Amino acid sequence: MGSVKVISDSGVFRDLASGCSGRKWDRCVGFPDGGASPSLRQCATGGCSVQRSNGAVADPPPGINRAADNPASPTGTLRAAPNDPSAMADRENLVYQAKLAEQAERYDEMVESMKNVASMDVELTVEERNLLSVAYKNVIGARRASWRIISSLEQKEENKGGEDKLKMIREYRKTVEKELKSICNDILDVLDKHLILAAVTGESKVFYYKMKGDYHRYLAEFATGNDRKEAAENSLVAYKAASDIAMIELPPTHPIRLGLALNFSVFYYEILNSPDRACKLAKEAFDNAIAELDTLSEESYKDSTLIMQLLRDNLTLWTSDVQGDGERQTLFVAVNVSLIGDQLFWGINP
C-alpha cells in the first residue's frame, strides 16, 4: 500500500507511512499537465506537527491556501455577550493569551485559554473559533502521529515474534491512547456544553457539528470492540447533523460544506469500510459544487476549488478500490479548514 497522505485539521500535510508532518514539507500540491492527481513529494525531514491559526501553519508549504473550517465570511456574530465591560476585557485577554501561547508553541495553555472563552457561552468570532480549533488540533495531532508510529512498530515486532519488546510497545501505545481519549473527550465536552448551544449562524453550527464528528472519528481510529462502535455511531450522528444544516444554510460551493463532505466521506471509507458510500457522498458534493462554480466569488474561489480537487483525488483512488483494482488507500483526509487572509491551509485534522 502506498503512503497515506493526510491533510490535518489545522492544515498540515502529513505522510502517515513515514511519520513526517508539518513545516518540513517540500512542496505538497500541484496539478501538473492538467492531470487529476496532485504532484506530491515526501517531506524532506519529519517530526513536526505544529500548526498555527494565523495562516502560517508553522512555516506552511508554498503555494497552498488555507480554507474550510473558517472560510471567507463575516468575522463572526456575538450572541448574548456579557454587558459587563470587565467580562469583555477578560475575553479579550484570554484571546490574546491564546495567541501568545500559539506563538510560543505552548498549545496546552492555548487550549486552556480558549476553553475559558468557550465557557462564556457566547458565539465565538471566526478568529476565536479558529484559535480553539488550532489549539486542539496541535495538542491531539502529535498524539495521533505517535500512535500511528507506535502501531507500525508493534506490527513489525509481531512479525518478528519478539514478545518482550511487544509488551513494552503495547504498554506505550496504551499510554498514548489514554492521552488521545482525554483530549477528544475534553473538546467534545466543550462542544456539547457550550459551543453548539451558543451557536447562532448556520456556518458555526455546521463547523461545530463537523468538529464533533471529527473528534469522535479520532476516537474510533484506535478504539476496539464496543468502544469503537460507539465512537463510530456518535461520529455518524454528528456528521449527519452537520450535513442537514449545511444543505439548508450553506451553498454547495461553501468551503465548510465542501470540507464536511470531504471528512464525512473519509469517515465512510476509513471507519465504516464503505467505499461505495464514500464515493457517492464525495461525488455528489463535487458535482453539486461544479454546477454552481460560476457563482463563486473571487475571494473563495481558490479555497473551494482546492477542496473539490481533494474530493476528486479521493474519488479516483476509491473508485479503484470499489472495482477491486487496488489496495485501500486515501490520498487526502481533510478535517478542519480555516481561512486566514488569502491563504488556505488545512488547520486539519481528518
UniProtKB/TrEMBL annotation:
SUPFAM superfamilies: 14-3-3 protein. InterPro entries: 14-3-3, 14-3-3_CS, 14-3-3_dom_sf, 14-3-3_domain. Residues 91-332 form the 14-3-3 domain. It comes from the Eukaryota. Residues 56-85 are annotated as: Disordered. Homodimer, and heterodimer with other family members. PANTHER family: 14-3-3 PROTEIN. Belongs to the 14-3-3 family. This is 14-3-3 protein epsilon. It comes from Gasterosteus aculeatus aculeatus.
